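User: Hi! Is it possible to get a structure for several chains at once, not just one? Here's what I have:
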Amino acid sequence: MSEDNHQIVLAEIPQGKLAPEHFKSAVAARPTPGDGEVLLKVLYVSLDAANRAWMQGATYRSALTAGDVMAGGSLAEVVESRSPALAPGDLVFADTGWQTWAVAPARRLAKLPRMEPLTHLLSVYGVAGLTAYFGLLECGKPRPGETVVVSAAAGAVGSIVGQIAKIKGCRTVGIAGGAAKWALLTDELGFDAAVDYKAGDTRRALRAACPDGIDVYFDNVGGDIFEACLFNMANHGRIACCGAVSQYDGAAPRAGPRGVPGLIVTKRLVLTGFIVSDFDDKRQAALADLKSWVESGQLRVREDVLEGLESLPGALVGLLAGENIGKRMVKVA
Amino acid sequence: MSEDNHQIVLAEIPQGKLAPEHFKSAVAARPTPGDGEVLLKVLYVSLDAANRAWMQGATYRSALTAGDVMAGGSLAEVVESRSPALAPGDLVFADTGWQTWAVAPARRLAKLPRMEPLTHLLSVYGVAGLTAYFGLLECGKPRPGETVVVSAAAGAVGSIVGQIAKIKGCRTVGIAGGAAKWALLTDELGFDAAVDYKAGDTRRALRAACPDGIDVYFDNVGGDIFEACLFNMANHGRIACCGAVSQYDGAAPRAGPRGVPGLIVTKRLVLTGFIVSDFDDKRQAALADLKSWVESGQLRVREDVLEGLESLPGALVGLLAGENIGKRMVKVA
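Assistant: Yes, the chains can be modeled jointly so their relative placement is included. Here is the combined structure:
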């Protein structure tokens, strides 16, 4: 097996929009696992909007700095183990970064089941699916008959949120950009309505699509769309705050949405921020639900798989521009 | 008894800051109660920041329009009753508006106990005390040892929030404007620390006063202070959104606080908007708690009582400028 570790390094922290030029390729020696560690071969790298947020400063993880191997989560295979917890051939999800080989402490990793297709371990059974599941059900708390709106609805998380809401008996409205996504949502994924935020006045379009107001808004984007939803919330509505992709790809944070906190008070809203690891104790039950829905055909999984380590910078730039449909990942090996 | 009903009418909806000129006096005939109604003599009118919000548009009540008798809640005495539910001499809290006499349906009113001083029915045992109680305990959910911050801390609600938080074993930090309020908070009301938002960089002062971050923020003001607190929240912190007085006294809503929703996500915050009537079913238990704390001396009640119907416009303008300490009201009869 190759001794070389091919890497993508963050050459420079972007001050404005992220571009492929902010990255560079590097080659290092294949790392060697120490006691308690495993050597991992990276199979698929997950692309996530949060990758960009990590360049802005400390979030729920420490900030990236120039010269770092770009951070990112991957589906990886154990090739060599110096821990009794894992054996060669085991699959894990790990924060490997954008490289072909990585070393990690075994105690931080959990063995994943082999399945076909393997990519589902990064989409519906990975962070995306669990984020959709916990954000919607634990933070949004939808009740049958309620109206659920999700932004970035054609994305990895949003496409699953809308379908779970439908399974739970809700009326579902997706916000996405462009006619192709609009058609995907209503024709393929079973949304009751879709709002194209590139087609004009989102606040007005939401009012038309949600005449009784929004009971649950699953926010992936922040910014103007967050504001448009806030003004359309029904009394006692809930907003699950999952991410703010509209805010990541630029310099300093802009002004926040109008109506905060005034509309939160008058409409008696609850806004809940979360990250998926907050719900680790409920993971197995969530995975069982997701599996049953996928197997019954109620939940359709969309994936967007690119090829080759070198395609990672462009894949992230494109994700931030909203070009993917479903879970985007890059097959590395 | 006088047949005249002296009134303060909202002459004009303010476009910018509210001023006494936006009101005018009027005299009408004393109203006559119909079947099921009572005639009320207004004793004390409550002054609330929400009075100003009602001029901006529909909130949890319909908007005020020019020519309306100014809306407001009062402690009033039943003088004539055409309902078996209430008798002359009974005290009630009612949405009488700014006038000396009012008529209201008895079914909307609840008889209050006579007590000394009567003013406590508008402060600690009224909307202010219950708002503090429910907002802090039901929305903020403080745990002993946590850091609780409240804005407008010398006001009717804030002065009670801080004291309840202290009773519950929290570290309490009040935000208020000016040295006099600062001294009141730390010397008289038992706050552990105070931040004077007029003295400079509030975000930095909060960081110094709350080195481990803010676990619970009770927001009465919105705007820049909300933003300063948001940036100082601890992970898994809670924000009780009670009002946004900084946003009421002007024209169109400004941009919202930065960090929304980004910091809500990364810090895993919960923001809960509420109004006091959401908790009507828990009112008796709350009043019993408040009474026991007042009687034991753990909870000190501050009131700011002005005299005469004609002083109402100036009293509201001054309240919006933060000139009151404790619950502001006007004795009308």
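The mean pLDDT of chain A is 95. Chain A has ten helices and 15 strands.

User: Great, thank you!
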